[in-house]
Amino acid sequence: MRRISIFGATGSIGQNTLDLIGRDREAYQIVALTGGQNVAQLAADAKRFNAELAVTADPARLADLRSALAGTGIEAAAGPSALLDAASRPADWVMSCIVGSAGLAPGLRALEQGASLALANKESMVCAGPLMLATARAHDATILPVDSEHSAVFQALIGEDIATVERVIITASGGAFRDWPLADLAKATPEQAAQHPNWDMGQRITIDSASMFNKALELIETKEFFQIDPSRIEAVVHPESMIHALVGFTDGALMAHVGPPDMRHAIGFALHYPDRKSLPVERLDLVALGQFTFRSADETRWPALRLARGVMATGGLSGAVFNAAKERALDGFIDKRIGFQQIASVVEEVLSRVSAQQGHIDADITLDNVMNADHLARVRADEIMTELEG
Ligand code: NAD
Ligand code: MG
Q1: What is the pTM of this model?
Q2: DSSP annotation of 283
Q3: Which of 36, 119, 160, 250 has its CA 20 to 30 A from that of 13?
Q4: Cα-based angle 282, 11, 144 (whole degrees, multiple of 5)
């Protein structure tokens, strides 16, 4: 039996992962499941899968988790250090699907145990790509991409020589506002931004799709994961979300990964890697689909893409600053402190203020330095949002 842990089990990716595991229950032993506020879901899944341990990120929810698990023999724990303890437990395969930079430390800890880390938490690569790769190398661990675009690129690269890659194109649906006139974006609400045209995902990544910050993070993730020069990485809007990424080679061939917008493909690919097994995803009927279309990913409409280019050029801790500033600005938009288009302005201003402070961007990429940069960026983002309100 393969030993499996899921960090962020109660979320969208976590639930899709459990859906796959539940179809072949006998093949897996669940070590740890973790969640946040939703301890009822966490406890129900821990019982259903007979997990060894359930951890809520929020210490205030520990009593509820304990009482929900009373008499089951399943351990309960809470808080960031309990998450790290859970990540220290030996497991063969660990799903990293916490949302935000909070997913970085548990993922690193799992790599230190030599686990295969299925990485949905793109923020880990954006904030600390070199640290993630070095930790995996040092502990003979494997990182498998779960972001659909990166799983697609990974699959297109199997058996290929990376030196023959001319370009990588990742696709974007364009999000909730792709057809809105630019002039209307200032009035866009969080409720409207949380309606994704094609994918069913968590609230935060869905809003990030509308602002294109999700694609911005993914451009950086592509650079860090595959060590590809940023000049070779492109994003293109593909409203149907059927082609997830394309890899162009020196002979002019373009290998596309095509499939329905269902995360269980990328999760299942990482779960069974290096094998391929049957997965419960729709088989596409190309004639019924009729056509695939593409549009330019306009950096005026979506300034997040322009900011990502700057981050890729700067490197160092700028990814950590960019991500944390985006996380706080997104909180500000959800809480209606700032407007939709101000998300990017806040992030740009945080990058400029933090860069102006000596030593904050070019420090070594250690976990401590990343978390310090993350903290500083959040403080600056709050300052800027207060200025905007005042
Ligand atoms: P979600 O909001 O549905 O779930 C997030 C999970 O993280 C929940 O279990 C939540 O309890 C937990 N969590 C939240 N804050 C936490 C904290 N501070 N500490 C510990 N745990 C915390 O999110 P999601 O849509 O499943 O996305 C998860 C990750 O996967 C994100 O990094 C996202 O970018 C990435 N991703 C998601 C999709 C998708 O289809 N949903 C696709 C590609 C990549
Ligand atoms: Mg993606």
Answers
A1: 0.98
A2: P
A3: 160
A4: 65
User: What CATH number has the domain bearing residue 317?
Assistant: 1.10.1740.10
Distance from residue 102's CA to the centre of ligand 2 (Å): 18
Same domain, 197 and 332: yes
173 occurs within a structural domain: yes
pLDDT for res 258: 98
Tally the domains of the chain.
2
What tens digit of pLDDT does each residue of 180-221 get?
999 999 999 999 999 998 989 999 999 999 999 999 999 999
Give yes or no: residues 200 and 338 share one domain. yes
- In the numeric block, which tokens belong to residue 274? 């290096």
Which helix (H) or strand (E) covers residue 132, if one does? Answer: helix 122-138
Q: What is the pLDDT of residues 343-364, one digit of tens each?
A: 999 999 999 999 998 888 999 9
State the residue range of the domain holding 110.
2-145
Contact 176, 239 (CB under 8 A): no
Residue 288 lies in a domain: no
Measuring from each residue's beta carbon to the nearest atom of ligand 1, which residues come in under 6 Å? 8-14, 35-36, 57, 97-100, 102, 120-123, 147, 199, 201-202, 204-205, 263
Cross-strand pairs, 95: 6, 118
Could you say which ligand is closest to the alpha carbon of residue 118? 1
Measured CA distances, 207 to 145, 174, 341 (Å) = 21, 11, 12
- Sign of the alpha-carbon dihedral angle for 91, 94, 99, 103: positive
